[in-house]
Each structure stands twice: as C-alpha cells, then as structure tokens.
Prior knowledge:
The chain is mainly alpha-helical. It has 4 helices and no strands.
Amino acid sequence: MMPVNDDKMQKIITEIEKLKYGDKRDDALTALSQQREHFSELAPFIWHSVGTIAALLQEIVSVYPLLSPPLLD
C-alpha cells in the first residue's frame, strides 16, 4: 500500500464531503471506490465525518421500496 500524500488526502476529504449532496453522491462514491485500495483508513474517515452516514442511510431508505416486491392480495 502506497502512502497517501497531502493532495490525495485533500481529494479524498473533498469526495467524502460530496457524499452529503444527492446530486454529487454517485460521482463521489465512484471516486472513493477507486481510492479504497490505496487508503486503508477510508472507512473510519467516512464514519467519523459529520452527516455522511446519515446521508448514506437516507439513500438506502429511499431505494429500499424499489427493491421489495409488491404484496399479492
């Protein structure tokens, strides 16, 4: 694993901040998924960033109804 320099660290922090905004979330997730192999502390950074987990949970809750099959009466 390569060390993360200051420029890459700032880019990772910026992408984590973008997770809070619905219109930027997909691009941020794509960028962060590409960095996870090079930055082992990505999960704790996301977990401890203010509002990020709430935004991701909101995304999951909004998609969940589309995943559950309709009930047969």
